[in-house]
Design goal:
Length: 367
């Protein structure tokens, strides 16, 4: 499926495009992006915009913006968010809507479904959703940390066909193009493996918080959900013209042939583990069967404080991560069960009614 066959896309714009000099918002680079969004909508392609830039936009209003404290960054985000939205709004002749998120919103299943419904309702009414992380209120425990990964989570929530991640280079190179003149652009990636991560490095722009590594992380999340993913140069109008011509202007990541079920994708890539259940090594074999159920006699220990319905990590004693799953029981009861002797477990005296995790609520992790 080419880009022009997409019915719904997500495009992610970074801080360097919004406020390149940290002197407020600039439409210099945004004009071509806005035109691209307009032309997509004219072709019947629905668009969701993930836009960074509130901190960079608000920095000019503060005296000490070179090394701001965490509190000042939150204040910058609060001040800059209104300017950023106003800048986008004036570039379109159709309505826009603001959605501010934390990872706490995305990882909570009920709020995640609410986000899906809101995005869908906005698109049905011809309104452009503009999403950003809510930097003003987020904490280390609640933040995604970068809008690259958030854009992949939004693409899953929005049911998008394609994800476009804008960068300051043409795409993924085999070497850092800023330091190696012989670096070659990789036009297509069929599988994201250790080699792809190794060449991505951890370079970041001077303004944004996401480098190529976070873009690869986002691409991995997106393709596992069946989303066609592109990393393109957002500073070049040519990138958007080529996309609208049905061509690939940067690096294209092919989606998995068998995408993960939506619920399992959310559990794997969006939900955060609230605790761990350590199991014996024999349990890993059961993950390869059609019927996977964790029982009390397979539990070695329990870490963390979690409640029924929370997402947990299932791992072996040597640290191998096996799966993420929705638990049917809380940590208090599971701790009690894990502490019993093998004889008492086998007697069934301390076994709960029903499995600890059910086969439809377990997402096996690739190691």
């Amino acid at each position: 499926m080419g880009f022009l066959n997409s019915k719904r896309i997500v495009i992610k714009i970074g801080s360097a495009l919004i406020a390149p000099n940290k002197k407020g918002c600039s439409s210099f680079y945004l004009l071509s992006i806005a035109q691209f969004i307009i032309r997509c909508r004219m072709k019947g392609i629905e668009v969701v915009l993930v836009s960074s830039g509130s901190v960079a936009a608000g920095a000019k209003l503060f005296a000490d913006n070179v090394s701001p404290s965490v509190a000042m960054k939150k204040a910058m985000a609060a001040a800059g968010q209104t300017e950023m939205m106003a800048t986008w709004d004036k570039l379109f002749d159709f309505p826009t809507a603001q959605i501010l998120l934390t990872h706490g919103d995305l990882r909570d299943r009920e709020r995640y479904i609410s986000i899906k419904e809101t995005i869908s309702c906005l698109l049905e009414n011809g309104i452009l959703p503009i999403l950003n992380e809510n930097d003003t209120v987020t904490t280390d425990n609640l933040k995604v940390g970068d809008n690259d990964n958030m854009s992949a989570m939004v693409a899953a929530a929005a049911g998008a066909d394609s994800l476009i991640i804008c960068s300051d280079v043409d795409g993924l190179y085999d070497k850092n193009p800023n330091t190696h003149k012989d670096a070659k652009l990789i036009p297509e990636v069929a599988e994201i493996d250790a080699y792809i991560y190794s060449i991505a490095g951890d370079a970041t722009s001077l303004v944004g918080t996401g480098g190529m590594k976070t873009k690869i992380e986002a691409a991995e999340k997106a393709v596992s959900n069946g989303v066609h993913t592109y990393i393109v140069n957002g500073f070049s109008e040519r990138s958007f013209n080529l996309l609208l011509e049905g061509n690939n202007p940067g690096t294209y990541f092919k989606p998995d042939e068998t995408p993960m079920h939506e619920h399992l994708h959310w559990m794997t890539h969006t939900s955060t583990s609230q605790g761990e259940v350590v199991v014996d090594n024999d349990f890993s074999a059961s993950l390869e069967t059609e019927s996977v159920q964790l029982t009390s006699d397979e539990i070695v220990s329990v870490n963390g404080d979690f409640s029924p319905g929370d997402t947990i990590l299932v791992r072996t004693d040597d640290g191998t991560k096996l799966a993420k799953a929705k638990t049917n029981y809380g940590s208090c009861l599971l701790n009690y069960i894990a502490e019993q002797s093998d004889e008492m477990k086998l007697s069934g005296t301390f076994n709960p009614d029903g499995p600890i995790i059910s086969e439809q609520n377990i997402a096996v992790l690739e190691n």
